[in-house]
């Protein structure tokens, strides 16, 4: 039979699906789990596993089943198989992790962010070049997660680092032909929550993810595709003008939603100076609330039910904290309702300090959310879920993106000819 490129590639479709199963399930799976999940016959599964073993992509380990009968075969990533490198950049640190084809990130090193962006970019380039030299062709892709807007995969404005511009073009060029993808952290988090079997958004059709760290990060997945606009920089929901129009956001615009929901907003409402690290500030406040949860919950409940006047009998510290949290929770609830009206998600996944605020001031949040929903959305209101992976989602999502991009039928076909 004439072997066209098309038939060669379709021959690897089942093998690609088996590998995809491994990166979206935690502990790999037994042959029978995978067979059932993908509706494969026993002979197809045996044949596919043999091909993947030959390519050093998997190995199989005999495990004793709970059920009676024969021991089952566990399918695991081959220790000498492909690897993806993942970099996650926060305000204060960057970390490097590697993942095998099971997509589970293993943190390799954590470094402080240097003061200059030239040094920062050089450090990333050096560390990735070294990894490439050590791993050779086993390193198949790099994903860099940034808490900022990414345009055309190379340009970003990480205002949280005090840098108005960061250009990854040189890094991408130096590592070529190794594919390097620069991606927004919330987008990666959404990919992890959506694709992973255990993720909070798994099985939903419209997924809105909101992750508050230094400011609001967001992503929307519609029927499996990330909605990211013409240049890939869409999804900046934190900069919709749903905030106070007199407050200028660090993005340059006035009235952004972020300015009434982030750590700076909480500090402003509590009369504190602007925090150096807003993420850390929210953690501190959250810990303070945990020291006296009943006091704070009672205050927030009171304010929500009766307005601030009724709380004058409480200590002023508690009143301030409760009032501050209630205000932030209301801003968060209203904004999420606005996005629900516009985007029609069937699940909203919350991550970072969005979760903290909602937990500490749940009634204020819920009231504001419900009040701002259109009737048509209220009758089929989206589920609200907590992110399963948290900040690990940036790495998990990066691994899924990298492996989905690289481990294709064409890749397996090319590997089989080496
Ligand atoms: Zn803004």
TrEMBL record:
High-level lineage: Bacteria, Bacillati, Actinomycetota, Actinomycetes, Micrococcales
Membership in a protein family: Belongs to the ROK (NagC/XylR) family.
Annotated organism of origin: Jonesia denitrificans (strain ATCC 14870 / DSM 20603 / BCRC 15368 / CIP 55.134 / JCM 11481 / NBRC 15587 / NCTC 10816 / Prevot 55134)
Name by which UniProt lists this protein: ROK family protein
Alphabetical list of InterPro entries matching this protein: ATPase_NBD, ROK, WH-like_DNA-bd_sf, WH_DNA-bd_sf
SUPFAM superfamilies given in the database record: Actin-like ATPase domain (SSF53067), Winged helix' DNA-binding domain (SSF46785)
């Amino acid at each position: 039979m004439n072997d066209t490129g098309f038939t060669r590639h379709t021959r690897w479709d089942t093998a690609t699906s088996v590998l995809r199963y491994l990166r979206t399930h935690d502990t790999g799976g037994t042959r029978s789990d995978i067979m059932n999940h993908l509706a494969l016959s026993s002979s197809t599964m045996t044949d596919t596993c043999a091909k993947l073993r030959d390519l050093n992509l998997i190995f199989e380990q005999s495990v004793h089943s709970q059920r009676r009968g024969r021991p089952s075969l566990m399918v695991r990533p081959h220790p000498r198989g492909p690897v993806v490198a993942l970099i996650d950049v926060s305000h204060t640190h960057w970390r490097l992790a590697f993942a095998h084809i099971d997509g589970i990130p293993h943190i390799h090193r954590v470094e402080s962010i240097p003061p200059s962006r030239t040094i920062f970019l050089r450090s990333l380039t050096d560390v990735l070049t070294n990894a490439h030299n050590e791993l050779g062709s086993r390193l198949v892709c790099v994903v860099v997660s940034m808490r900022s807007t990414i345009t055309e995969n190379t340009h970003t404005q990480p205002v949280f680092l005090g840098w108005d511009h960061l250009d990854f073009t040189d890094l991408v060029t130096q590592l070529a032909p190794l594919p390097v993808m620069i991606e927004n952290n919330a987008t990666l988090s959404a990919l992890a929550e959506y694709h992973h079997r255990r993720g909070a958004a798994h099985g939903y059709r419209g997924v809105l993810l909101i992750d508050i760290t230094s400011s609001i990060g967001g992503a929307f997945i519609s029927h499996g595709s990330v909605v990211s606009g013409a240049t890939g920089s869409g999804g900046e929901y934190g900069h919709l003008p749903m905030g106070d129009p007199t407050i200028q956001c660090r993005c340059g615009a006035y009235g952004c939603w972020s300015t009434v929901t982030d750590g700076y907003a909480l500090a402003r409402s509590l009369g504190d100076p602007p925090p150096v690290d807003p993420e850390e500030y929210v953690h501190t406040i959250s810990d303070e609330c945990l020291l006296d949860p009943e006091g704070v919950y009672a205050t927030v409940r009171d304010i929500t039910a009766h307005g601030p006047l009724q709380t004058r009998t409480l200590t002023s510290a508690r009143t301030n904290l409760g009032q501050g949290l209630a205000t932030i929770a209301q801003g968060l609830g209203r904004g999420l309702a606005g996005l629900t009206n516009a985007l029609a998600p069937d699940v909203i996944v919350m991550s970072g300090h969005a979760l903290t605020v909602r937990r500490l001031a749940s009634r204020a949040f819920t009231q504001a959310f419900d009040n701002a929903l259109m009737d048509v959305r209220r009758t089929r209101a989206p589920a609200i879920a907590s992110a399963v992976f948290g900040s690990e989602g940036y790495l998990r999502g990066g691994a899924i993106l990298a492996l989905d991009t690289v481990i294709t039928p064409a890749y397996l076909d090319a590997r089989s000819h080496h």
